[in-house]
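Explain my protein.
***
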Amino acid sequence: MKRILFLIILSVAWGEGLAFAYVLDKVDAVVNDHVITMSDVDSAVQVEKTDASAAGKDESALRKAALDSLINRELLLDEARKFNLVQVTQEEVEQAFKKVKSRYPDEKSFEEALQREGINDDGLKDNLRDQILVIKYVDRRIRAFVLVTPDEEKSYYDEHKKDFGTMEFAEAEPEIKRLITELRTDKKLDEYLRDLKTKANIIINP
């Protein structure tokens, strides 16, 4: 199959119909008409590197994982917008924005970080809005249907008792319920995404 190189082109009209095209970014993938650029993947790779599971992975493996995460994000955003099960308030966006900003020692460091990513305050807020929307959608669409019984919690405690040290079951129970819920949510989410990918139009550049 012929290799297709997608480019984002900026055309600037000048004079009598004369236009100049500037290549801004190479596109690594298209998901249902949503573009994922090389810069998007570069940024996502930096996030992947902060994960403990990234240890020992080479750059190509990290880029593959980052691209897959971005594809999953676009698929979930499409579903969230299509079914309109959840909404994101401006207050939620502002709180998330302040939380991100608080990680930097001062305004200058924060602004420099935005410049490196090629976005401004509004761009960051848009990204945070999408992130919150995906989280809320997964909570409503998948996590809400994950049930954990007291017997399952007790069985987990008995099988992993050494992990809880001196904690009795009653004390460990909330954490056990959270762990089982997250494991089952992740499994159901993987299944959901595999199904979405069979129906989606996804083009990945080699």
